Amino acid sequence: MLLFRFLTAVLLMTGINCMRTQLQDTSLIAKSKARNHGLKDSFSNYTVEQVTSLIENDPELKEALNENLTSLNVEAVTEMTRLIEEHGIDFVFSLADVQTNHIAKLRFGIVKKNLKKVKVLQEKTAELKSNGAKDAAVFGLNFMHLFHDSEIGGLFGLIPENKTADTNASTTLLETGTLPSEFTWVGSAVQQEVQNQEQCGGCWAFATSEAISGLNYIQNGVSSVLSAQQLISCDTRNSGCGGGVVSYVWNAASLFSPAGYAALTPIVNEQTMPFTDGSGTTSACPASYAQGASGLEGVKAITNVNVANNANAIQAAIDNNPVVVSIYASGDCFQYYKSGTISSSSCSSICGRIDHAVFGVGWGSWGTTDAYFLIKNSWGDSWGESGYVKISTESACNGDGVLQVMEAISYPQTTTCSGCQGSSTNVPNSSTNAPNSPPTETLTVSPTSSGGILSITCFLIAAVLCLN
Prior knowledge:
The protein is of the alpha+beta class. The chain folds into two domains: 2-135 and 445-465, no CATH class; 152-418, Cysteine proteinases (Cathepsin B, Chain A). Helices cover 31% and strands 13% of the residues. It has helices at residues 2-22, 48-56, 59-66, 70-87, 102-130, 203-220, 228-234, 261-264, 311-320, 332-335, 447-465; strands spanning 138-139, 170-172, 183-184, 298-307, 323-327, 337-339, 341-342, 356-366, 370-376, 388-392, 408-418. The strands form two sheets. Strands 2, 3, 4, 5, 7, 8, 9, 10 and 11 form a nine-stranded mixed sheet that branches. Strands 1-6 form a two-stranded antiparallel ribbon. A hairpin with a 3-residue loop joins strand 8 and strand 9 (370-376).
């Protein structure tokens, strides 16, 4: 015991000294940096009693904090430090309080809880790779795993549609013809950069505005990035950052439903109305953008097309234009995703209620049977494969696909452009566009940042050893 205390003291002093020489401000774990995802610390003002109640009502979090596993504690501290530094999350608390401060201990427990869960997924990946699955999904911690489940609800925002209530939505099984084994819109003018919805549950608006943008280029030859914020603020049938139904954006009027906002109102360029609701609070709609407003220069979209839920029909639809895809994203399999293809073998949480709208931009395959859909998310480009995910085309979840990826696929049938300016170029499809992979990005850490990570880590490891 005396030897253990001596070693702990040495580590503590080493941590203090390395921080003194490498950090200008030793009172803060992190300051806001460029890669901030907009997620905010909801617990900074929590009392000890409130934190205790939160832990008691989260059995997995409670178990993680009660476990005294030195190796896991050290790894959790290292991951906590890396994520804070890498993503620039605005946590502000004293480095010296990691052991005793209730907020710091809560954050540590959250990371440790997530680390335990991701290790289970990683073990499954190792097993699949050892059995020859070359593109098995790889899992790890990302920016959201510094946060409690109650803090990340804004990452989702899709409201499933009651399809029987709207006979105007036409389900179409497209003629497939002969399609190549791989195809993607990534890198073409039809497809734009990965966006970040932050804490706003406006995934439906990001996906639909991008679908309208892409189809406008295909049909009218005008390349533009249309405003998701306009839909979030002004589409009164949907609920802004509180969520939305995809088809409500562009439905034609019928006996069962009114016309959608985009069917009546041009969607303007993002530069004209940029995204401002990352905090999760929906901004008011300017009067000049109210539904049916005249004089706006933008793009209308009308008539919802639902694609049949089989891989061939979906690939044929994507071959014509990118599509909006509804998926089950709140399970572990999607949240911890880093690379590779998510399949029915990847993890247990592949079936559930759809809760997130994303963008289908292509497909590919590994061998003759390992086909996947290429999907673009709206959680920033540091999630997944530079903002993208590959999901198997296999028929799982009662035919709705892995993560329900084939359950609800849709796009607008027609776009009209009023006052648009742009140039038309050849629009690629599977016959002209060579398949690409999602863009890759190498995260680099400057010497100053790496020094910060090292100094924080050495202190925190020493502090957490005292927990044992």
